[in-house]
Amino acid sequence: MVSVTVKVHGKSLIIEPKGRVSKLAALKRRLAIPLDCVRKASTAHVPKSKIYRSIRVGGTALPPHYAGRFYNFDDGLIFCALSDPDKCVSLTLEGFRYKEIIVQVDDKEEVAAMVRKALAGI
Predict the structure, then answer these.
(1) pLDDT in tens, 63-119
(2) If you write DSSP's letter for every residue of 42-95 in order, what string do you get?
(3) Which domain holds residue 114?
(4) How many domains does the chain have?
(5) How far from chain centre, in Å, is Cα 116?
(6) Looking at the whole model, is its pTM more than 0.70?
(7) CA atoms of 40 and 83, how far apart (whole Å)
(8) Which pLDDT does position 119 carry in this prediction?
(9) d(CA 106, CA 83)
(10) pLDDT tens digits for 13-60?
C-alpha cells in the first residue's frame, strides 16, 4: 500500500511517503510545496481516468499502486502516491512543477481541513 504523511511546516506543505518501499516507489523522499502555490484541497474520489490517461514519467505503476510523476493528458505533470482512490486528497497547484498532487492518507478529511486552514492563514 502506498501512503503518505502531510504536514504544514512554516509556509510550506510537506509530503513524505511512509516507509522505504513507498519512498523507493515514488522516487521521492519528500516534497516541499510553498503554501502560496496550493489553490485547492479536495477529498473527492479520484477518477480512474486521471491515472489511466497518464504516462509514467518516473516512479512505479503496478495497478492498483501508483507512485511518482505522471504526465496526464488533460492536466499536465502530476504527482501520485496512492493505492486506494477513495482515501486520497487532491491538491490543485499553480506556479509549481506539478499541476496536481494526489496522495493517499490515513484520514483524508482531517488532512484536507488542515491544508484549508493553513491556506486561510496566508
Answers:
(1) 787 877 888 888 899 998 888 999 999 999 999 999 999 999 999 999 999 999 999
(2) E-SPPPHHHHHTEEEEEEEEETTEEEEEEEETTTEEEEEEES-GGGEEEEEESS
(3) 4-120
(4) 1
(5) 15
(6) yes
(7) 22
(8) 94
(9) 12
(10) 999 887 665 555 455 678 999 999 999 999 999 888 787 778 777 777
Backbone angles phi, psi at 2, to 5 degrees: -100, 125
Residue type, 95: G
C-alpha cell, 20:
522505504
C-alpha–C-alpha distance, residues 14 and 26, integer Å: 15
* Residues contacting residue 85 through CB under 8 Å, at least 6 positions apart: 45, 46, 47, 48, 51
- 3-class SS of residue 40: strand
| Helices and strands in the chain: count of H runs, count of E runs | 3, 9
Q: Is the peptide bond before 85 cis (omega within 30 degrees of 0)?
A: no
Q: What are phi and psi of 83, to 5 degrees?
A: -125, -30
